[in-house]
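[SOLVED] Need 3D model of a two-part complex

Original post:
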Amino acid sequence: MSATPSLPSVLLVEPQFVLRRTIVTVARELGLVEFHEATSVDRALRLLASHRFVGMVLDLGDGPDAMTLLAELRKGAFATVPRIPVIVMTSEPGSAHEATMQPLGPIDVLRKPFKIGALLESVRTMAQHGSGSH
Amino acid sequence: MTSAPQPPDESERLRALRELLLLDSPPEEKYDRIVRFAVEQLDVPIALVSLVDDDRQWFKARQGLDVQETSRDIAFCAHAILQPDVFVVEDAALDERFADNPLVTGGPKVRFYAGAPLNAPGGERIGTLCVLDQKPRKLSAVEIAVLQALRDLVNDSVAGKPDQEQES
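Solution:
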């Protein structure tokens, strides 16, 4: 393994094993970002307590907990800058979340199932955001 | 049609494959979910975990194909295991190695094949994670990276690694 230049550090909160691992590996392979993985909101909270991230990709499968996490982030509850770009992923077909989510300012909302290429396009934009604000 | 030659390490390869006790074993969700995901992500009708045995390829996991095994002499995967990279045939009908292959002229009527070689823990190439289509196509760089990432997950399962709910 050769030393890789340091990539932007992004938090990925996604419970599904195959999806999560594939996102992480492909993003690294393409030199896009370095994802830190959390399988649940609980675990994400622990990472947010100790790490600073330049972006977050958040699955809303944990329901209210995931929204609370995002709201707390925006209030500045963690070491990470409150206004980092956030991409949310959801299985919900309707716009039920959207009214609640709008004030929390995600840069993108991806409906599952989505292609990993589509997520990574969004992550590429995020990485540009992140590098611009730091 | 050109059947694939045997790899130089064929006897060690077969020994490594058989020691894994995967051949003729029941389906397992840890492999099935990977081929389902490959079909969804790569927009193909067929994805397989194929193990290349002495005279056959046997499918540990399959999506979109009814047969459990084929003879090795017609297996695309027997070609794929000859080298370490993803092996792609964009249009089998235009490739003299495969144009008159019975999997191309009949049966599943394969036109497109992409296979990422699987490794036993000792490095022997025991088979592939592969995707097939009935129309010619190409894979983008992201799609190849997805196939390789899924192949790595199959390798981890073959090596007996548990799903890592890793935290750092």
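Edit: Chain A touches chain B through 21 residues (CB under 8 Å).
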